[in-house]
Specification:
The complex is a heterodimer of chains A (about 450) and B (about 220).
Chain A (H helix, E strand, L loop, with lengths): L1 H4 L1 H28 L1 H4 L8 H14 L5 H14 L4 E5 L5 E5 L11 H11 L5 E6 L8 E6 L8 H43 L17 H57 L4 H31 L8 E4 H18 L3 E5 L7 E4 L1 H18 L5 E8 L3 E8 L13 H14 L3 E7 L2 E9 L9
Parallel strand pairs in A: 6-8
Antiparallel strand pairs in A: 1-2, 1-4, 3-4, 5-7, 8-9, 9-11, 10-11
Helix pairs in contact in A: 2-7, 8-9, 9-12, 10-11, 11-12
Chain B lengths: L2 E5 L3 H13 L3 E5 L6 H4 L4 E4 L8 H11 L5 E5 L4 H8 L4 E4 L4 H14 L6 E4 L2 E4 L4 E4 L4 E3 L3 H12 L4 E3 H9 L9 H13 L9 E4 L3 E4 L2
Parallel strand pairs in B: 1-2, 1-3, 3-4, 4-5
Antiparallel strand pairs in B: 6-7, 7-8, 8-9, 10-12, 11-12
The chains are: A alpha+beta (about 450), B alpha/beta (about 220).
Chain lengths: ~450, ~220
């Protein structure tokens, strides 16, 4: 059943039909050719075979052979065939009566001249019939001549052209059938291709309608199956992502709540009369709470970033203004710690950068936080712009003891890893020079981007 | 006295915050869930809301309060720190503070919100100036004279007072007061700040009330 519905079967059917029909044409032709004589109707007066039979028949029936009877016979034929010519040679070989004969005929017919005449006319033009007169052959013979163009073409020739046109017709029919067949396939394949390119809001392909159960139909079914699986896996992925986000959000929440409680407890302890050491311990506890808080935040971000699940929504942003507002929000913290704050932000050639403001904010927060915690000894933070031929950059510098000798507080590492991932995620670059005199960090945007190839 | 409605289900944290805020001179009504808050809503000046609560969550409670009381500031106080949570919170709330927080920061943010919503008619003492924040009446204590500010100066000074202690960039000030995008090089703002300083500063050449923060902008500090 399946095979019968296939395209292969259909095309095989076309081919077999074509071969079969051609064969039938040949068989019919053969039948016509061989059975032609029996099929001919006796009334067909222009058929050479009919003429020959009739001429012979009538000649043999002539009685009292004389000039008169022959002429009468000739006249009767003349009426039916005005284009014909006729003559009579008698038993002694003398040319006797002739009707409309155009050529010179010998007056005396010998065996040689008769044979010559017969040989000359056999199968030629005019069509010639020779018949003996009367019952015995001593009365001589009468000859009937008619130009062949006055006759009907012979049957074979007529059916031959029919056969030729039929054969050509068959071939054309076969070509047309094949053309239509393949055109249909092509159209369906093109439609399928178009349908495969359509995407829904989620960027996934859409299922197509399966109309036939042939090979293309099976292809469509397979495609639909694929679309189904794709949707399923996308949904699974979304669910997993949702789960992961939930997990991280809940974990973060569950860690922060006890941390807040610890802070609450330290508050109540601090209300008691405490020794200087006790107060110191409380202060250090509070610092640790802040530190753990930041570590949790960074750890969560890092996990999300590593799994490429951190939302990235770049926008065109006036970056100089953005950095200015960011340092403004940190200003009082630095001021409180007695930092010298040196801000020199000049507009770049192109102030609009394609960045995610949340990411950029996070980068700056991490860097400022690091300065505040790890470079306190330098009491200096510089936030400046720098423009060279190759890049525009923000330069954040401090006068701390450097990353290696660094501060007694650890934990800058994960913050910088996040900076690194986020900077690179926004197709920016950064570098860091750290020495005992301080640390200089540059966030750069190349003017001819490395990603944009120069041609 | 400023009334605060505080909703927090964690007993330790609730007790701590309540006590701390009371010490700072606020009147605090602490509740452990959103049930029965309606009777207090009309009498309070600010709502502090936790997110993870038994029953209705903080987001839903906050949205309902905000829908019915547009002028009531809401501060979300949550251990949920994901950006999505903050964005959802800030879609209706006026501030979002994450745990663990410092009680001083909470108090500072409450003050900012109260100022923004003109909830407290504080008399603000800025050096030699006494300012009634609600109607922005400014009196020079030394001369006893009231200082009159013209239209833009008034709005500019009001903008500074609303963002007390905050550094404001030229762009923020211009857009906040004039309501138009700032164009680099525009001198309008600087001219107005000069006029304002001439009126309120003791020595306009060495301003101390409106500080210039080099490279960033200006600040009025308490």
């Amino acid at each position: 059943m399946k095979f019968l519905r296939s395209l292969l079967a259909k095309y095989m059917l076309i081919v077999v039909t074509a071969i079969f029909l051609t064969q039938i044409v040949f068989v019919i032709y053969a039948l016509i050719m061989f059975g032609a004589d029996s099929i001919i109707s006796p009334e067909d007066s222009l058929n050479p075979n009919v003429i020959e039979e009739k001429w012979n028949d009538e000649a043999s029936k002539i009685q009292n052979v004389s000039e008169e009877t022959i002429q009468k016979h000739f006249k009767k034929w003349m009426q039916q065939y005005p284009a014909a010519s006729m003559f009579w040679v008698d038993g002694n070989g003398n040319l006797r009566t002739q009707f409309d004969v155009k050529e010179e005929l010998p007056l005396k017919w010998t065996a040689t001249s008769t044979a010559h005449f017969i040989k000359e006319r056999y199968g030629g033009d005019p069509f010639t019939v020779i018949a003996f007169v009367g019952k015995d052959k001593s009365q001589g013979f009468i000859v009937f001549e008619i130009p062949r163009n006055q006759l009907k073409p012979p049957d074979g020739q007529k059916y031959g052209s029919v056969l030729l046109s039929l054969t050509i017709g068959m071939i054309l029919l076969f070509i047309l059938a094949s053309f239509l067949f393949f055109k249909g396939i092509r159209k369906r394949l093109l439609n399928l291709q178009k349908a495969m390119e359509v995407r829904d809001v989620n960027g996934l392909p859409i299922q197509v309608d399966v109309k036939k159960n042939d090979e293309i139909g099976q292809l469509e079914q397979t495609f639909n199956q694929m679309v189904f699986e794709l949707r399923e896996s996308k949904q699974r992925e979304q669910e997993e992502e949702q789960l992961r986000r939930e997990l991280i959000a809940n974990l973060s929440h569950d860690l922060r709540t006890p941390l807040t409680k610890i802070r609450a407890q330290t508050y109540f302890i601090a209300k008691e009369e405490l020794s200087q050491e006790g107060n110191q311990a409380i202060k250090s506890m509070e610092d640790s709470i802040d530190h753990i808080d930041r570590l949790i935040e960074n750890l969560m971000s890092y996990t999300l970033l590593m799994a490429s699940k951190y939302k990235f929504e770049p926008k065109e942003i006036d970056v100089v203004r953005f950095v200015k507002e960011s340092i403004a929000s940190w200003y009082s913290l630095f001021e409180k710690e007695g930092f010298e704050i040196d801000v020199e932000l000049h507009p770049f050639e192109k102030n609009k950068w394609m960045i995610d403001p949340l990411w950029m904010g996070r980068i700056l927060d991490n860097l400022f936080q690091n300065v505040l915690r790890h470079a306190k000894s330098g009491r200096y933070i510089g936030v400046k712009t720098e423009s060279t031929k190759e890049y525009d950059a923000f330069v954040i510098s401090d006068r701390g003891k450097g990353m290696k000798n660094g501060s007694n507080e650890k934990g800058a590492g994960i913050g910088l890893s996040i900076v690194d991932m986020m900077v690179k995620g926004m197709e920016l670059d950064w570098d860091m020079k750290s020495s005992e005199q301080g640390t200089i960090i540059k966030i750069k945007r190349y003017k001819v981007g490395r990603s944009e190839k120069t041609f | 006295m400023v009334h605060i409605l505080y909703i927090e289900d964690e007993k330790d944290i609730g007790k701590w915050v309540t006590q701390n805020l009371k010490e700072k001179g606020y009147q605090v009504k602490w509740m452990q869930s959103g049930e029965g808050i309606d009777q207090y809503i009309s009498t309070v000046d600010i709502v502090i809301l936790d997110v993870m609560l038994p029953g209705l969550d903080g987001f839903s409670i906050g949205k309902r309060i905000k829908r019915e009381n547009k002028d009531l500031p809401i501060l979300m106080l949550s251990a949920r720190t994901a950006v999505e949570d903050k964005l959802e919170g800030l879609s209706f709330a006026d501030d979002y503070l994450t745990k663990p927080f410092h009680p001083d920061e909470l108090a500072a943010r409450i003050e900012v919100l109260l100022r923004r919503f003109n909830k407290n008619d504080n008399i603000l003492q800025l050096q030699h100036l006494t300012i009634h924040t609600k109607d922005l009446q400014i009196v020079n204590q030394e001369t006893g004279e009231e200082i009159q500010l013209t239209g833009k100066q008034y709005y500019l000074f009001q903008y500074f007072l609303r963002h007390l202690n905050q550094i404001l960039t030229k762009e923020q000030l211009y857009e906040g007061v004039w309501g138009e995008p700032y164009i680099e090089g525009d001198k309008t703002l600087m001219v107005h700040i000069r006029y304002l300083r001439e009126k309120i500063e003791k020595d306009p050449a060495n301003p101390t009330i409106i500080e210039t923060i080099r490279g960033i902008g200006y600040r009025v500090k308490k």
